[in-house]
Amino acid sequence: MASSRKKRVVDETASDCDEVAEDMSDEDTDESENEFMNQLFLKANVNLSELADMIISQNYVGSVIKQIDAEEEDDSSMDDDSGDTVFGLVTIINLADKKDKDCIQKIISMLTSKSKSVSPQDGQKIEELFSNPNETVGLLINERFINIPYQITLPAMQSLRKDIEKANKKQMPFTFTKILLLCKTYRYKIEDKGQVPSLFFSNPEEEFLVEMSDLSVTWSVASERDGVSEKKWDEDDMEATRTVLVLGVDKLDSFIERLKSELAQ
Known about the structure:
Elements: E1 17-23, H1 30-41, H2 48-57, E2 63-69, H3 75-79, E3 86-94, H4 102-118, H5 120-131, E4 137-144, H6 153-169, E5 178-188, E6 199-201, E7 215-220, E8 238-248, H7 251-263
Parallel strand pairs: 4-5
Antiparallel strand pairs: 1-2, 2-3, 3-4, 5-6, 5-8, 7-8
Helix pairs in contact: 1-2, 4-5, 6-7
């Protein structure tokens, strides 16, 4: 499947290179996807290679973030981008449709058990969500390297929404009732007694989704961090965490509109 430019350059003020959201293609190897999944799931018992292969197999939904040289961008370079480095990934996986896959079973089990360890009540809600035949949950993946600006998220999410619409017109299984997002988050280890620890998001735009979510659960991954993807937060007073958000599928449009509003300021 040939790759094509999907979105315009987001950072139009940069002089040398810019980030763009592109269609995924066969040239985007599972090594890149594996790296992004590793920084999200860390040491969780999830078959990341199987998950990466799954993402590539549905490359008609979602996009990768690449960096291009603004001075060298022309028609020929757009046709041949096999050497481009992947800096980010945005896609969605139908957990119900892929529930027979080992990696999906492990993700569901991990999310359920971790949530129950923090809040049995919320963990029960997540378990019921996965087991309810009337619910179709999409696992939204929004991953990128830490130095890539969040502005790229808007065209990537707009592209994802269009891809979902196209897939549904072709009777592909991308009709969802709920969206689930696992976020890389951090919090201070020491807070005033009785105070809820402040939560920080590695992808700052994901904080917009907290107020839109039906459910939010955070747990510590301090013992699982790898020292590379978590290096920025490798400080004595910070603790690496993961936060799962559950949202109605209509909140994807709300998220896009919020991003538009923020970027227009």
